[in-house]
Automatic annotation (TrEMBL):
<feature type="region of interest" description="Disordered">
    <location>
        <begin position="173"/>
        <end position="202"/>
    </location>
</feature>
<keyword id="KW-0732">Signal</keyword>
<protein>
    <recommendedName>
        <fullName>Copper chaperone PCu(A)C</fullName>
    </recommendedName>
</protein>
<dbReference type="InterPro" id="IPR007410">
    <property type="entry name" value="LpqE-like"/>
</dbReference>
<feature type="compositionally biased region" description="Basic and acidic residues">
    <location>
        <begin position="176"/>
        <end position="202"/>
    </location>
</feature>
<dbReference type="InterPro" id="IPR058248">
    <property type="entry name" value="Lxx211020-like"/>
</dbReference>
<feature type="signal peptide">
    <location>
        <begin position="1"/>
        <end position="26"/>
    </location>
</feature>
<dbReference type="Pfam" id="PF04314">
    <property type="entry name" value="PCuAC"/>
</dbReference>
<dbReference type="InterPro" id="IPR036182">
    <property type="entry name" value="PCuAC_sf"/>
</dbReference>
């Protein structure tokens, strides 16, 4: 009787062991499936393929917009497009480009910017840049500003910009037009020539 009881216990333990080993791979597969469902198309357009560098903006001057700069690196295999930028610290944020038209320099508002695979797009003085209007709080040198960059494929990405009194000038064939020191209240950027307008430093 004792021998039979021991045999039944051994069989029960063996069955339990086989059941656990059978559940192992299935549980792992289910976990991976859940992870895939949670990330959606992240494998096709991973957020990690987009890198943001040198995010900074000029300290706002009362009554005038600030200028923001950054670099966007696309390390993925697919092109992406920056569609919009918002910030809780500003009423609105626009993307602008400084272009040449018949030897004259002109600022043009952009609806979006494409970043090709393996490419880097720079928002820098004298070229593409951000214009930030209507600050919602006082900002000083060293502060940080949160902005949400929305991409067509990667989706929204929150980036912190550093506020600086002075932005290092970079060589550019377009020159460095300091829009943050200009009065934009009555300006029509779409057809305006900014070539000779570089307000003095304050």
């Amino acid at each position: 009787m004792v021998s039979l009881t021991r045999h039944m216990i051994a069989v029960g333990l063996l069955a339990a062991s086989m059941g656990l080993s059978g559940c192992g791979p299935a549980a792992t597969t289910q976990s991976k499936a859940n992870q895939t469902a949670a990330t959606g198309n992240q494998d096709q357009f991973p957020l990690a393929s987009l890198g943001i560098i040198n995010a900074k903006l000029r300290t706002p001057v009362a009554g005038r917009p600030s200028a923001g700069y950054l670099g966007i690196e696309n390390q993925g295999q697919e092109a992406d497009r920056l569609m919009a930028i918002t910030s809780p610290d500003f009423g609105r944020v626009e993307m602008h480009d400084t272009q040449s038209d018949g030897g004259m320099k002109k600022m043009v508002k952009l609806d979006g910017v494409e970043i090709g695979p393996g490419n880097t797009v720079d928002f820098a003085p004298g070229g593409k840049h951000l214009m930030l209007f209507e600050p919602t709080r006082p900002l000083k040198n060293g502060d940080t500003v949160s902005m949400e960059l929305t991409f067509a494929n990667a989706g929204p990405m929150t980036i912190r910009f550093t506020v600086l009194d002075e932005i290092p000038r970079q060589p550019s064939g377009m020159g460095d037009m300091d829009h943050s020191k200009m009065d934009h209240s009555q300006m029509d950027h779409s057809g305006m020539d900014h070539g000779a307008m570089d307000a003095p430093k304050q």
